[in-house]
Design brief:
This protein is α/β, with parallel strands linked by helices and about 375 residues long. About 30% of the residues lie in helices and about 15% in strands.
Length: about 375
């Protein structure tokens, strides 16, 4: 049998297959961080018995948002709507983790409380953009966090995880990728600090590791995941020695006995495969970090089912997360299992809006008539 469709033990959870729904930014929440009323339908449609879903990036702090329409879990008022989402997923026998994030410098005063400046490890000019009521605009220049402010960041994530568990989530994922706050602290083009959170690799990794430990005190380490994007350039990120940095981070996380480490392959830039070199690059992050991380590895990054099967067969990963295919194919695990064609996604409806491009993708077979066929799946046993 294909590995992609074989069961897998993820911490305390028995998964029936290894097709994971990646965290997908959809930006349909209200201005106060309440998820869209259709979110329970959206996640419920994509749940499957024994399948794992990871939510869109959800702000763990009031000043942690970077986009108009991003949901939050930093206030008790935000818990109840998430509970309905969990119920919809559990009703179909699925599991769901909440991804917690802090945008750090990738934000704008218009989406900050009282229009304050965003925060980050250091004041470094960068070219990222934030989504505001005026559209996509350059980020507001950030200020550097004071040393005495950093413990509050850790505590905000611990409280956010507590709220996620109150809502019934099966676990949480810390978003340490894509140029957000943890990534900003880890990589040395954005972290110019000279205190205990800057300079050495160990110091730059400290915030992520301390937060993972703090969240584990309320969720249990077996229900905590971490996402990284080794060598990713999203958010104007770069490091002088990515292999050394991310090998250290992976090895340190391995000591915490987490549910998983989730890697975005560097070939992914934003929502598209990086084809600047003339061809789609092969996965490299998982192969680089597998020797340093003995636990469960999830990989993401523009995978087709055949490529997902190949990386599982290589032993470089244990589970594969799909993004755009899950948007357009709510029944993606079933399509892979039965060899049904995949429907095409509509990129114009990825961010913001209502039901269009969100909850209106049909399941097989009506999807072929309404969305068009991309390709027939071909996976060799």
């Amino acid at each position: 049998m294909r590995l992609l469709l074989k069961p897998f033990q993820l911490g305390p959870y028995e998964l029936s297959h290894r097709v994971v729904m990646a965290p997908l930014t959809r930006l349909r929440a209200s201005s106060d961080g309440i998820v869209h009323p259709l979110a329970a339908v959206y996640y419920g449609q994509r749940a499957s018995s024994g399948g794992l879903l990871i939510t869109e990036a959800t702000s763990a702090a009031a000043n942690g948002n970077g986009y108009l329409g991003a949901p939050g879990i930093y206030d008790d008022s935000q818990v109840a709507p998430w509970r309905e989402i969990v119920r919809a997923v559990h009703a179909k026998g699925g599991r769901i983790f909440m991804q917690l994030y802090h945008a750090g410098r990738r934000s704008h005063a218009d989406v900050q409380p009282d229009r304050v400046r965003p925060v980050g490890p250091s004041e470094v000019v960068h070219g990222s953009q934030a989504l505001t009521a005026a559209g996509w605009v350059p980020n507001t220049p950030n200020r550097a966090l004071r040393l005495d402010e950093i413990p509050a960041i850790v505590e905000q994530f611990r409280l956010a995880a507590t709220r996620a568990l109150t809502a019934g989530f099966d676990g949480v994922e810390l978003h340490g990728a894509n140029g957000y706050l943890f990534d900003q602290f880890m990589q040395d083009n954005s972290n110019l600090r000279r205190d205990s959170y800057g300079g050495s690799i160990a110091n730059r990794a400290r915030l992520l590791l301390e937060t993972a430990q703090a969240v584990s005190t309320v969720a249990g380490s077996a229900r905590v995941g971490v996402r990284l994007s080794p060598s990713g350039r999203v958010g104007d990120m770069a490091d002088s020695d990515p292999p050394a940095l991310f090998s250290h981070v992976a090895a340190s996380l391995a000591q915490l006995d987490l549910a998983y480490l989730h890697l975005i392959e560097p070939r992914m830039q934003g929502t598209a495969l990086d084809t600047a070199a003339g061809a789609v690059q092969q996965p490299v992050a998982a192969a680089m970090l597998r020797p340093h991380y003995s636990g469960t590895l999830i990989v993401a990054g523009g995978f087709e089912p055949a490529g997902a099967e190949a990386i599982l067969q290589s032993g470089d990963a244990d589970l594969v997360a799909f993004g755009r295919h899950f948007i357009a194919n709510p029944d993606l695990p079933a399509r892979i299992r039965h060899g049904w064609p995949l429907a095409a996604h509509d990129r114009a409806t990825f961010y913001g809006g209502g039901a269009a491009g969100y909850t209106d993708y049909p399941v097989w077979p009506s999807s072929v008539e309404n969305q068009g066929v991309v390709k027939k799946l071909e996976i060799k046993d």
